[in-house]
Amino acid sequence: MKWIDYEVPNSVDEAVALLGESGDKAKALAGGTDLIVMLRTGVIGPDLVVDVKSIPELNEITYDPKAGLTLGAAVPCYKIYSNEAVAGAYPALIDSASLIGGTQIQGRASIGGNLCNATPSADSIPTLIALGATCKIAGPNGTREVAAEDFCKGVRQSVLKPGEILVSLHFPPPADNSGARYIRFIPRNEMDIAVVGVGVSVILDNGNFDSARIALAAVAPTPLFVKKAGDALAGKPVNDESIQMAANISRDAAKPISDMRGTLEYRKHLCEVLTRRALHTAVERAKETS
Amino acid sequence: MPQKTSVTTHINGEEVQFLAEPRQSLLESLRDTLHLTGAKEGCNDGNCGACTVEMDGRIVDSCLVLGVEAEGSEINTIEGVATPEGLHPIQEAFLENAALQCGICTPGFIVASKALLEANPNPTEHEIRFWLAGNLCRCTGYDKIVRAVADAAGRMSS
Q: Which residues on B lie below 8 Å from A3 (Cβ)?
C-alpha cells in the first residue's frame, strides 16, 4: 500500500477544508470497515485519509418524540441498538444496524458509512428510504439536504462531490399507528451480503393503509425506492390481498442481475416474498404502538 | 520522507507509545511494532475475527482499524487475559472442552467471548452463536467452542 497522510479534524469546517484541498484524492474515514479493505486491496488509492470521528456533529445521536432522530454519520451500529429510546422508536433501524457484519464490525461500522459506501446491497439504505430519512451534507459551499432515496447514483457512487461529507441523517418522528421493518435473505444465518433486502414502513388508519414506503436492496445498481408499491397501498384495507398486490409491484419493479448469490428470477421472487413478510411485520409493529 | 506518527495508548492497562505509518493497521502495529503477536492475521478484511481486540470497551477487528486511530484509546488484547496467577476461566474452559485444534482462531474467540460474558453473564446458545458470528473456525465445527463459552459462563458466575 502506498503512503497516505492522516488527519483528525475536530470540526465539520476543518474536515471540509481538508477534503476540499485534496479533492478526489482524499477519503473520509468513519468506522473503516469498508474503507480500510478498499485501501488495502488497492480499489482506492487516496493521498489523504480524514478521520471524522472526532467531529461532534458526526457522533450525535439525539432522539426527541416530536423532532425525530438525528444520527451522526459516524455513530457505530452498536451505539444505535444500545440506545433504548432509538430502538423503541425505530425498530427497523435496529433491524439493519444489527445485521451489518458481526459483533466486531458493528463496533465500528456506521449507518452513515454504509450509505456513503453506496453498494446496492447495503442493509441500511432501504430502511433509510422507508423511514423517509434526509441526509445532511456539508461542503465548501455550505450545507445541503438530500433525501435518502436520492443519495446513491450508481454502484459505489453517491451525490457527494469532492470536498463534501455526510454530517448526519435525520429521521422524522414515528407517526401514530406506524411501523417499519427491514429483512433480507441470505443463505446463512449471519455475516453475509444480502441476496435481496426489503425495507418498508406503513402508517395505518382504522384498518386501512394511510401510506407506505417500500425500498429494495441488491436488485438494481442502487438501492431502489419503489414508490408506486407504497402509493398503491394508500387507502386500501390492511389484508393479505392488498399486501400481496404491493409485493407483486415490488417484484415487477426489481431490476436484478444474475450473479453468484442468486439468479435474476430468484431475486425477483425474493422481492415478492420479502416485501410481503416485511409488510406483515410492519403492520404488526404499527398495531403494537397504537 | 513522510514522518511516522507517534501514538499514545493504553494496552492491557499499561501506557504504551509507538510509531505508526498511517497506512498500517492496528493489527500490524500490535504484531510487528509492539510484538504482541497473540492477535492473528487471518483474512485481513474483517471476516474471520482472528485479530479481535477490545478497543474502548467494544470488540473490533484490529485489521480494520488504523494504528494511528488508537491514539488515546484503551486496548485489551489476548495477552492481557491471563494473569500471573493463572489462566482466565474462559481459557480454562477452552482447554478442558477441547475448543481448539490448530489454535489460530482461539485468541480472537477468547477476546470476543470475554466481552460477551462481561456484557451478558448468562447467554443462551443462540446468543453465543450470534455474538461469535464474526469469528471463524475451520477446525472445530464450533460446537465445542459454544460449549466452552457456556461452561465458562458457569465458572465465572459460581
A: 2, 21-23
- CB contacts of A36 in chain B (<8 Å) are 25, 63-66
DSSP assignment letter at B13: T
| CB-CB under 8 Å, B135 with A32 | no
Domain containing A184 equals 178-289
What is the SS3 assignment for A287? helix
Q: What is the CATH number of the domain that holds A123?
A: 3.30.465.10
E strands, A3-127, are 5-7, 26-29, 48-51, 61-64, 68-72
Q: What is the ipTM, given to two decimal places?
A: 0.96
Residue A108: list chain B partners with CB under 8 A.
58, 60-61, 64-65
Residue with cell 492473528: B40
How close is the nearest chain B Cα to the Cα of A110, in Å?
Answer: 13
Among all residues of chain A, which has the CA nearest to that of B5? A6
Q: In terms of pTM, does the model score above 0.90?
A: yes
Statement to judge: residues A164 and A69 lie in one domain: yes
d(Cα A125, Cα A197) in Å, to the nearest integer? 9
Q: Is the CB of A49 less than 8 angstroms away from the CB of B132? A: no
Written as tens digits, the pLDDT of chain A (290 aa) is 789 999 999 999 999 999 999 988 999 999 999 999 999 999 999 999 999 999 999 999 999 999 999 999 999 999 999 999 999 999 999 999 999 999 999 999 999 999 999 999 999 999 999 999 999 999 999 999 999 999 999 999 999 999 999 999 999 999 999 999 999 999 988 888 999 999 999 999 999 999 999 999 999 999 999 999 999 999 999 999 999 999 999 999 999 999 999 999 999 999 999 999 999 999 999 999 76
In a domain, A95, yes or no: yes
Domain finish residue from A128, A144, A171: A171
A26's grid cell: 482524499
Task: For each of the domains in chain B, give its residue range(s) and CATH number, in order of start.
Answer: 5-80 (3.10.20.30), 89-157 (1.10.150.120)
Phi (first) and psi of residue B57, to 5 degrees: 85, 0
CA distances from A285 to A204, A278, B42 (A): 11, 10, 41
